[in-house]
C-alpha cells in the first residue's frame, strides 16, 4: 500500500508548494503542525487530509518539540516534506533522522511509481540532475511557496505537546529586516557582485519600487558580504523562484544560481560582460554598466 505523506509545518503556514507536491503522490496527506491555532486552522483548510496539531508554549522555542514530532512520524512513516525556515528544518531533520530516511534537496519533481517514490533533484552542486527511486521513507526539502488557497477545512487532532527539557525563551527582539517573499513574487530583481558597495543597494531598491519587484541576490551578497538577509539569496542552496520576470543585475549566472531561477517565465540580464553565463541564460540581455542602466530603467519606469 502506498505510504502517506507528512508535511512538517513550524510556526507559519506558507507551505503551498509542500501541499502541492504531497497531493501529487498517492496516499493520505497529513500535516504535522507545531504552531498557533491560527496556523493549524489555515493548514486544515489548505487541501490536506488530516492535521495533527502540537500547541507550543509561547515561551518554548518550536525546535524543542522535536521529540513530539519524532514520535508522531514514527507511528506512520512515509514521505516527509519540509520547508526551509529554521524551525521547519530542525523539526524535519529530527523526523527524518528518526526514520533513518534519505534526504533530498534541490528537488525539481516528485512522482509516485506504485509504492515507490521517484525524485528528480540537483546533484554535484547543480551541475547535473539526478533521478532516484526510493522504496522506503524519504525526506524532501522544498521551498514553502507562500500561503495555500483556503478550501474546506478538515478536523484538527490536537496532541499533547512535550518539549525537550530546560529550553525557555528569556528575551525577544524584533528584526528590523523586512521578510522576503520571493517564492510568491511576480517580479524579482536578483542583484550580484557587480554591485560595488552596500550603499549602492539604494539604486536597486529604487528600481524595485518602480518595477513593484522583490529584491533577491546571489549567495555571496547574503553569505559573506551580508548585505542582504539569507532568505533573499536564490539558487541551489537558497530560494527557488518562479516569477513572471527575473531581472539579474550584475550576476554572472553560475550554475548554482541559475538552478534557482529556472522557473521564471522571462529572464532579463544586465551585465557588462557579454560572455557572462547569465547572458546566455537570459531571454533578453542589456550589456553595459549597471550604474548607468539601472538608473535609466528606473527613470523610464517611473516616467521621469
Ligand atoms: C556548493 C555551492 C553552492 C552554491 N550555492 C549558491 C546559490 O544557491 N546561489 C548563488 O547565487 N550562488 C551559489 N554559489 C556560489 C556561485 O558558485 C557563484 O560564486 C555566485 O553565484 C556568484 O555570484 P555573483 O554572480 O554575484 O558574483 P560574480 O560571479 O563575481 O559575478 C559578478 C558579475 O557582475 C558583472 N559586473 C561587474 N561589474 C558590473 C557593472 N558595473 N555592471 C554590470 N555588470 C557588472 C560581472 O561581469 C560578473 O558577471 C554556490 C557555490 C557552491 C560551491
Could you write a compact summary of the structure shown?
β11, α5 (201-211) and β12 (214-217) form a beta-alpha-beta unit. The protein has a 7-stranded parallel β-sheet, sandwiched between helices. A 5-stranded parallel β-sheet has the order 12-11-13-14-15. The protein has helices at 16-23, 37-44, 66-74, 86-99, 201-211, 219-222, 255-258, 277-281, 290-302, and strands at 5-10, 29-34, 50-54, 79-82, 103-104, 107-113, 116-123, 128-134, 138-141, 156-159, 187-191, 214-217, 245-249, 266-271, 284-287.
Structure description:
This protein is of the alpha/beta class and 304 residues long. It has 2 domains: 5-159, Rossmann fold (3-Layer(aba) Sandwich), CATH 3.40.50; 187-302, TPP-binding domain (Rossmann fold, 3-Layer(aba) Sandwich). It is built from 9 helices and 15 strands. The strands form 3 sheets. The chain has a 7-stranded parallel β-sheet with strand order 5-9-4-1-2-3-10, sandwiched between helices. Strands 12-11-13-14-15 form a 5-stranded parallel β-sheet. The longest helix is centred in the first third of the chain and has 14 residues, at 86-99. It is globular. 44% of the residues are buried. The model has no long low-confidence stretch (mean pLDDT 92). The site of flavin-adenine dinucleotide has 27 residues, from α6, α7, β14 and α9. Residues 125, 192-194, 218-220, 233-238, 250-252, 254, 256-257, 270-273, 276, 289-291 line the site of flavin-adenine dinucleotide.
Amino acid at each position: 500500500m502506498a505510504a502517506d505523506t507528512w508535511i512538517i509545518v513550524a510556526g507559519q503556514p506558507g507551505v503551498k508548494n509542500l501541499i502541492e507536491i504531497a497531493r501529487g503522490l498517492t496516499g493520505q496527506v497529513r500535516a504535522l503542525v507545531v504552531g498557533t491555532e491560527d496556523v493549524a486552522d489555515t493548514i486544515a483548510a489548505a487541501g490536506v487530509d488530516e492535521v495533527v496539531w502540537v500547541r507550543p508554549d509561547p515561551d518554548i522555542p518550536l525546535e524543542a518539540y522535536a521529540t513530539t514530532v519524532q514520535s508522531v512520524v514514527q507511528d506512520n512513516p512515509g514521505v516527509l516534506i519540509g520547508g526551509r525556515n529554521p524551525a521547519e528544518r530542525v523539526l524535519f531533520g529530527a523526523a527524518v533522522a528518526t526514520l533513518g530516511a534519505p534526504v533530498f534537496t534541490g528537488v525539481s519533481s516528485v512522482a509516485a511509481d506504485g509504492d515507490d517514490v521517484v525524485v528528480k533533484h540537483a546533484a554535484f552542486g547543480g551541475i547535473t540532475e539526478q533521478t532516484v527511486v526510493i522504496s522506503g521513507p524519504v525526506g524532501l526539502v522544498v521551498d514553502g511557496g507562500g500561503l495555500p488557497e483556503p478550501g474546506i477545512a478538515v478536523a484538527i487532532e490536537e496532541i499533547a505537546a512535550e518539549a525537550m527539557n530546560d529550553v525557555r525563551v528569556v528575551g525577544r527582539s524584533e528584526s528590523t529586516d523586512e521578510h522576503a517573499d520571493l517564492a510568491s513574487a511576480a517580479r524579482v530583481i536578483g542583484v550580484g557582485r557587480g554591485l560595488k558597495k552596500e550603499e549602492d543597494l539604494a539604486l536597486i531598491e529604487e528600481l524595485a519600487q518602480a518595477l513593484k519587484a522583490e529584491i533577491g541576490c546571489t549567495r555571496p551578497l547574503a553569505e559573506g558580504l551580508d548585505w542582504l538577509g539569507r532568505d533573499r539569496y536564490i539558487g541551489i542552496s537558497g530560494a527557488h523562484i518562479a516569477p513572471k520576470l527575473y531581472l539579474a543585475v550584475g550576476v554572472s549566472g553560475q550554475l548554482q544560481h541559475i538552478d534557482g531561477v529556472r522557473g521564471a517565465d522571462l529572464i532579463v540580464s544586465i551585465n557588462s560582460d557579454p560572455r557572462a553565463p547569465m547572458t546566455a541564460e537570459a531571454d533578453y540581455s542589456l550589456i553595459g554598466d549597471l550604474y548607468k542602466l539601472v538608473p535609466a530603467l528606473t527613470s523610464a519606469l517611473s516616467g521621469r
